[in-house]
Design a protein that fits this description.
The structure holds two protein chains of two kinds.
Chain A (H helix, E strand, L loop, with lengths): L4 H6 L11 H8 L1 H8 L7 H26 L14 H8 L8 E4 L4 H6 L4 H8 L23 E4 L5 H16 L5 E6 L6 H12 L4 E7 L2 E2 L2 E2 H4 L16 E5 L3 H16 L5 E6 L17 H11 L1 H11 L4 H24 L18
Parallel strand pairs in A: 1-2, 1-3, 3-4, 4-8, 7-8
Antiparallel strand pairs in A: 5-6
Helix pairs in contact in A: 4-5, 4-13, 4-14, 5-11, 7-14, 8-9
Chain B lengths: L2 E4 L9 E7 L6 E2 L4 E6 L4 E5 L4 E6 L5 E5 L3 E6 L14 H9 L5 H4 L24 E5 H15 L3 E5 L15 H5 L4 E3 L4 H13 L3 E5 L10 H9 L1 H4 L9 E5 L15 H5 L5 E3 L4 H13 L4 E5 L7 E5 L12 E4 L4 E5 L2 H15 L4 E5 L2 E3 L3 H11 L2 E4 L8 H13 L8 E3 L10 H7 L3 H11 L3
Parallel strand pairs in B: 10-11, 10-12, 12-13, 13-15, 14-15, 18-19, 18-21, 21-22
Antiparallel strand pairs in B: 1-8, 2-4, 2-7, 3-6, 4-5, 6-8, 9-16, 14-20, 17-19
The chains are: A alpha/beta, B alpha/beta.
Subunit structure (chain A): Heterodimer of an alpha and a beta chain.
EC number (chain A): 1.2.4.1
Protein name (chain A): Pyruvate dehydrogenase E1 component subunit alpha
């Protein structure tokens, strides 16, 4: 929504002169980072953290199973796993208001679906292309949606979800519903032009949106430093006066705390935030990626020393949670995931007539 | 319980591979993430990782084995605390491996199934205009503006966005007065960033609003075409009908006047080839108004193609409270019995002028305005063909892969028995549009080219 001309000229933020000094300008872009650095980790009690741990573990086990089913030929096409990045979706999602805030992401979307509490059966059934899948088998791994949960997909064109997310944020503001949009994209998408077109309009119109760069260090096979002139993505909003946040995406409590800070700022009507979550994907870009662009040692180091689930586990043990309880939880999740795989394998294929449904909504 | 390790599919197309090397041996303890083996596909050598913890029980396929089918059990992993010798393959293992190495599940059971598209429903007719209705003269430009204004009054969710639509009152003055009536919340000037604002408009539709996104011309929509096709057109299908996208993209399309090749192109055939889109290209003011109102109300994404050269032309429009016309229905602009001229947008005017002149020579041409290009009103074309037995298509656009080509295919496939002459296309020349006045005139269709084609199919 454009401001009225008078409102626009009255806004000191947009007055062309006098220019803010470089130092002032920088500090206004750092306000959220400064706030965040006061205390970077969310104070979670044992129950809260246990819940976050359970959700991350569900994503991990689900994705491992999806990888297995792909290997068995039950899942076809492209399949992008979220293993390693679990803390990002869970940390942010846990701070969002269900039913009010909207989410949009790219094709690495299974983890985000699970983060919403969507039934693993219908997600896995979509992966295997069955009628019971959330898109009746017509979307597949990359195209899943749940309007009921305000999860808007599931988009296969790198960067497109960012402008679409701008539109969702626009709708929140237009409807004055108090919601915000979380638009996730990768370090690869962060180089797409439309991302910056959207940042410009989002800042110009004070749209309620959090741009989240899930920097997993590789755009398919190209390392960040080989593709990006500015590798600190959280700084890239500076051209549009969007405050940035630099977040450890391997720590669910840090992501959660960053989300608290960012969401408060956006809900107060201050416009967008650009949050960079530094994370790592353990598997290839998709299932067919041999991942020869990085060393095994590099992957192993992240797994052994920075794993988000192990980190949450260590925190839980410190909080006095029994290890046996965590083992039982893992067992239950494995059983749940196995059940979803059975469901997905045994569900019927879509009816041939499904081919022609949902092309258009109306009849003309 | 023992876990079967099966030959994995490592790409969407892999059916078999070479088990190049085992990196573990029987009795080794492995944990999640350890590399068990290297597998060569036709494209790459991939590492096969363990997902579970356990002890390597038995290696069933030795290293160096070629053409190992996907799904074959290659080793057995014993779980923690389980004896290696206990870890025998379950009886169902081989059967299952065979099943999954072949066709996709279920595919072989059903065999080829003939599926036909659902039958088309009977067409809706234009609503009758009550006798005594006042007729007013409106330019196409005003008719379009009135359509938007009426729909904005009717539905709070409708808003207009685009370059220069608000304070400038529209680059071609189509949105004149809207800012004054509806204010800056609903009439929004965007920066010159078509890709970005087409995405924002599409996303806003997904979020429940009814955006009307104006492109200053459709030439600039090339920057944004990904959102029109990949985001707007496919979402309903990919989501199994969950996620709608009721957005209208509108603006002038086709050749203007001496603006050169980059600003002169008819995109109707481009968008009309995409399932999931509705494509409308009206000619006169009445259709422009009635169809734009219908487009804004539609639950589907609509590409609404206007024509700059027609904006100022005036036509009679019925003064009705709510003038809405059916999408997907052609209109007979002039009845005739000797030949059918199928057309849309600016070429309808050319066809009508040609028909008038032909009547003077004793040839009665029926002129059909398609109005909606997708879904195409096949019935209207075929009915007219059955009556006249001759079809000429007049289209202001390139001939190759055009709407005209589509009409030719339709007449061949479904109207062949009625044809007395080859279906003939009259389109622009197959060149980028030149700037020089004489060359531009040569490149575009005109009345004389249509008349020549009609005479040819009438063997006159």
């Amino acid at each position: 929504m454009a401001k009225t001309p008078s409102a626009r000229s009255a806004s000191p933020k947009r007055t062309p002169a006098p220019k803010a000094s470089a130092a002032e300008s920088n500090s206004s872009l750092n306000i959220l980072q400064t706030e965040f650095e006061k205390d970077k980790r969310f104070k979670a009690d044992a129950d809260t953290l246990l819940h976050l741990y359970e959700q991350m573990l569900l994503i991990r086990r689900f994705e491992e199973k999806a990888g297995q089913l792909y290997g068995l030929g039950l899942i076809g096409g492209f399949c992008h796993l979220y293993i390693g990045q679990e803390a990002v979706a869970i940390g942010l999602q846990s701070a969002a208001e269900p039913g009010k805030d909207s989410v949009i992401t790219g094709y690495r979307d299974h983890g985000h679906m699970l983060a919403y509490g969507i039934d693993p059966n219908i997600i896995m059934a979509e992966l295997t292309g069955r009628q019971a899948g959330i898109s009746h088998g017509k979307g597949g791994s990359m195209h899943m949606f749940s309007t009921e949960h305000k999860f808007f997909g599931g988009h296969g064109i790198v960067g497109a979800q960012v402008s679409l997310g701008g539109g969702l944020a626009f709708a929140h503001k237009y409807n004055e519903d108090g919601g915000l949009c979380i638009a996730y994209f990768g370090d690869g998408a962060a180089n797409q032009g439309q991302v910056y077109e959207t940042m410009n309009m989002a800042a110009l119109w004070d749209l309620p949106i959090v741009f989240v760069v899930e920097n997993n260090q590789y755009a398919m096979g190209t390392a960040v430093k080989r593709s990006s002139a500015e590798v600190e993505f959280y700084k890239r909003g500076a051209a549009f006066r969007i405050p940035g946040m630099d977040v450890d995406g391997m720590d669910v409590l840090e992501v959660r705390q960053a989300a608290e800070v960012a969401f408060k700022y956006v809900r107060e009507g201050n416009g967008p935030v650009l949050m960079e979550c530094n994370t790592y994907r353990y598997r290839g870009h998709s299932m067919s990626d041999p991942a020869k662009y990085r060393t095994r040692e590099e992957v192993q180091d992240v797994r052994e020393n920075h794993d988000p689930i192990e980190r949450a586990k260590a925190d839980l043990l410190k909080l006095g949670v029994e290890e046996d309880k965590l083992k039982d939880m893992d067992k239950a999740i494995r059983a749940r995931v196995a059940e979803s795989a059975d469901f997905a394998e045994n569900s019927p294929l879509p009816e041939p007539g499904e081919l022609y449904t949902d092309v258009l909504v109306e009849e003309y | 319980m023992a876990i079967e390790l099966k030959m994995p599919a490592l790409s969407p197309t892999m059916e078999e591979g070479t088990l190049a090397r085992w990196l573990v041996k029987e009795g080794d303890t492995v944990s999640s993430g350890d590399v068990l083996a290297e597998i060569e596909t036709d494209k790459a050598t991939m590492e096969f990782e363990s997902i579970d913890e356990g002890v390597v029980g038995k290696i069933l396929v030795p290293e160096g084995t070629e053409e190992v089918k996907v799904g074959t059990v290659i080793a057995i992993l014993a779980a923690e605390g389980e004896e290696v010798s206990d870890a025998a393959p379950a009886p169902a293992a081989e059967e299952k491996a065979e099943a999954s190495s072949g066709e996709k599940p279920g595919a072989d059971e059903e065999g080829p199934i003939a599926v036909s598209a659902p039958e088309a429903k009977p067409r809706k007719a234009d609503p009758a205009i009550p006798a005594g209705t006042n007729m007013i003269t409106l330019s196409v430009r005003e008719a379009l503006r009135d359509a938007m204004a009426e729909e904005m009054r009717r539905d709070e969710r409708v808003f207009v966005m685009g370059e220069e639509v608000a304070e400038y009152q529209g680059a071609y003055k189509v949105t004149q007065g809207l800012l004054d009536e509806f204010g800056p919340k609903r009439v929004i000037d965007t920066p010159i960033t078509e890709y970005g604002f087409a995405g924002i408009g599409t996303g806003a539709a997904m979020g429940g609003l009814r955006p009307v996104v104006e492109f200053m011309t459709f030439n600039f929509a090339m920057q944004a075409i990904d959102h029109l096709i990949n985001s707007a057109a496919k979402t309903n299908y990919m989501s199994g009908g969950q996620m709608r996208c009721p957005v209208v993209f509108r603006g002038p399309n086709g050749a203007a006047s001496r603006v050169g090749a980059q600003h002169s192109q008819n995109y109707a055939p481009w968008y009309a080839s995409v399932p999931g889109l509705v494509v409308i290209a009206p000619y006169d003011a009445s259709d422009a108004k009635g169809l734009l109102k219908a487009a804004i109300r539609s639950e589907d994404p609509v590409i609404f193609l206007e024509n700059e050269l027609v904006y100022g032309e005036k036509f009679e429009v019925a003064q009705l409270d709510d003038h809405v016309l059916p999408i997907g229905k052609a209109r007979i602009m002039r009845e005739g019995s000797d030949v059918t001229i199928v057309s849309y947008s600016i070429a309808v005017g050319i066809a009508l002028k040609a028909a008038e002149e032909l009547a003077g020579e004793g040839i009665e041409a029926e002129v059909i305005d398609l109005r909606t290009i997708r879904p195409l009103d096949k019935e209207a074309v075929l009915e007219s063909l059955a009556k006249t037995n001759r079809v000429v298509i007049a289209e202001e656009g390139w001939p190759t892969c055009s709407v005209a080509s589509e009409i030719v295919a339709l007449c061949m496939e479904e109207g062949f028995d009625h044809l007395d002459a080859p279906v003939t296309r009259v389109c622009n020349e197959d060149v980028p549009l030149p700037y020089a006045a004489n060359l531009e005139k040569l490149a575009l269709i005109d009345k004389d080219k249509v008349i020549a084609a009609v005479k040819k199919v009438c063997y006159r």
